[in-house]
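User: Please predict structures.

Assistant: First:
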Amino acid sequence: MRVLVVEDDEVLREAVEAGLALAGFTVDAVDNLHDAKAAATDWSYDAIVLDLALPDGFGLELLQEWRKAGSSTPVLLLTARNATFDRITGLDSGADDYLGKPFDLDELAARLRAIVRRGQGRATPVLEWADLSLDPANRVVTKAGESLTLSRREFTVLETLMEHPQKLSSRAQLEERLYGWQEEVESNAVEVHIHNLRAKLGRGCIETVRGEGYRMGRA
């Protein structure tokens, strides 16, 4: 999934970027409210990690602005303000979760997976389609009970398609999930990943709708 991290502490921000990337997330990061607002306007995110105390204002005000505008993107507040009152205020202002500093990166990743799962209306953390099973937390894919070895980006493409298996995902949407701001996207990158997945899963596992995108198939 693609996540926006809003954190002004450079050391912490880079640590969160690295930790989430190792957990399979595509991460964009900014250090102020102005850039956070611009990023959320220009890009689609599965979740946002938002610090409260930022150089140009209070993160809670931006969260409230997003919610008033109708944004339902899951937001996890990450802050040193961890008193009960602060947590209640943050949650009642529209946050989906609240994690105080210091924190464990594995817990942050797990909480992000949980709020995204709830936002998608899924009860189970494991994605299943036909004889495929995908476990986002443990980065495991099985077909008919047998484990498969996928690259990080192959895993991301398959996860994206299995989240909404009958919904078409366009090439642009898949690229957004695969690549952050600083990464160069090759013109045929998505097609290459789809080709590799079909070689491992079977050609009928992913269906192409010409000119529109991809979705899960039945074979």
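Second:
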Amino acid sequence: MSESEVEVDSKDTREVIMEATFRALSEHGYKDLRVRDIGDEMEMSRQVIHYHFDGKYDLLSSFLEYIIDQYEGSVEVEGETSPRSELDARIDQCLFGPEFDEFSHWDRMKVYHELYAHAQNDEQHRELFNDHYARIQGSIVEVIEKGIADGEFREVNAERMGQLVTDVIHAARERRISLDHEDAPAEARKAIDEFILDSLYPPRNGE
């Protein structure tokens, strides 16, 4: 590896490697992916990968964390936002995704769900996905509990409702990716509104 490559800021270098991994996974898939394929997607020498990662497995574990971090940090809500508006923002982010300069939300979700499918045989990756699931569910539960405390929502089992919303999101994304049902996210969003979120409000007088 050249001296100039070593001097590249490690954060910038990591992002270059992660985005190259996106491109390589999109082209070759998880099963056939080689470190060489990732190196071919970078302008830097392939040796920079070996400098930062201990092999393909270490690289893919970091890549999975990279995907998750992109989504964890992309929800922005104002301090005075109502619980319902915050729920809408979090659900929309999961179903429709943030904007990226390269590779769309669905390009990224395709790679995410391919790794997800292999997690049943990989304990470390399964733990990462379990943690991500818990964080998505937990963020929804937290907002529901806030809405209950503020009197905006009626008393419900927030944990169970958060789990239901999270499961609908996962199912809709999988249907969009695996079955090419492009309307799945939008239809899931309508169902979440009609059958889940609208039920959070106390019945009006006479209903």
